[in-house]
């Protein structure tokens, strides 16, 4: 597996799965208890075109209930599949299979939804050189999982949390008195961390370019201001050394137009916030055909 698609640590995945199984099973699966506990097979069907993501969580759900379960995937993580594709087969104990079904599919459908949405945005800006980033607008408790799904869909990750990047926004600038002063304070406090600065005017953009940072967020710039910002950042003496980011209210209909203006990255909360799960099902028995 590539570094890009390396999942979170096994302990973190196991913790996600333990919470999911605990809230679903509680004191025991009273319906699964009606089944004879015998060897059984099952298959997972993807009912719509999608980018499949979430295999580590799906596998962990079933292995937590039946360590001997055999899961054979017919597709790789991050693959585009057509509606009607059997993506995996399972062989294990009947009760464990049906007990783990919902939790396993919940992870798979949620993360596939994030990966599929991300892939649509990545396709929309193809050929422009602009990268698609996520945000911190993730489902509580699933940030690592959803950011992994963004990578599976071809996107890139913004900061993981409030601890790994300094991000100066309008309130920080207001308190500091200027963009220049805010950048100086941030560098003094956290010299080893990346610094992203949000600007609201072209004058603030020049301040940020002069003071230096890792990326500049040109939030709420109209088309004319955005194009002028690109011209300034790419021209002498700055020469494009500091990337420009657009964020806020970007949807699939407008993302390519923004990318063709020349910005370097576009961060989109909808990748993880406006979630539409992919339709998947798991059925006992051998797969059709």
UniProtKB/TrEMBL annotation:
Residues 115-283 form the Quinolinate phosphoribosyl transferase C-terminal domain. Residues 29-112 form the Quinolinate phosphoribosyl transferase N-terminal domain. Substrate binds at residues 102, 135-137, 159, 169, 198, 219, 247-249, 268-270. InterPro entries: Aldolase_TIM, NadC, NadC/ModD, Nicotinate_pribotase-like_C, Quinolinate_PRibosylTase_N_sf, Quinolinate_PRibosylTrfase_C, Quinolinate_PRibosylTrfase_N. Pathway: Cofactor biosynthesis; NAD(+) biosynthesis; nicotinate D-ribonucleotide from quinolinate: step 1/1. Hexamer formed by 3 homodimers. Involved in the catabolism of quinolinic acid (QA). Belongs to the NadC/ModD family. This is Probable nicotinate-nucleotide pyrophosphorylase [carboxylating]. It comes from Luteimonas yindakuii. The gene is nadC.
């Amino acid at each position: 597996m590539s570094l890009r698609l390396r999942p979170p640590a096994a302990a973190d995945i196991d913790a996600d799965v333990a919470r999911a199984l605990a809230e679903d099973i509680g004191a025991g699966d009273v319906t699964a208890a009606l089944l004879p506990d015998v060897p059984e097979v099952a298959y997972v069907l993807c009912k719509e075109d999608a980018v499949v993501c979430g295999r580590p969580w799906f596998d962990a759900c079933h292995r937590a209930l039946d360590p001997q379960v055999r899961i054979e995937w017919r597709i790789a993580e991050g693959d585009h599949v057509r509606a009607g594709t059997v993506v995996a087969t399972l062989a294990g104990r009947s009760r464990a299979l049906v007990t783990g079904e919902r939790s396993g599919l919940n992870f798979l459908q949620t993360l596939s939804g994030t990966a599929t949405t991300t892939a649509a945005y990545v396709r929309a800006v193809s050929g422009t050189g602009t990268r698609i980033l996520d945000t911190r607008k993730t489902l509580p408790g699933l940030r690592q999982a959803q950011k992994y799904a963004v990578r599976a869909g071809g996107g890139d990750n913004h900061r993981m949390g409030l601890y790994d990047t300094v991000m100066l926004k309008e309130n920080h600038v207001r308190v500091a008195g200027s963009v220049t002063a805010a950048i100086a304070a941030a560098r003094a406090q956290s010299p080893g961390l990346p610094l992203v600065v949000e600007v609201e005017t072209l004058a603030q953009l020049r301040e940020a370019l002069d003071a230096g940072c890792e990326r500049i967020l040109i939030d709420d710039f109209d088309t004319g201001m955005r194009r002028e910002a690109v011209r300034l950042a790419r021209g002498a003496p700055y020469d494009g050394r500091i990337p420009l980011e657009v964020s806020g209210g970007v949807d699939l209909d407008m993302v390519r137009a923004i990318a063709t203006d020349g910005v370097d990255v576009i961060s989109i909360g909808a990748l993880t916030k406006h979630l539409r799960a992919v339709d998947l099902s798991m059925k006992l028995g051998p797969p059709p055909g």
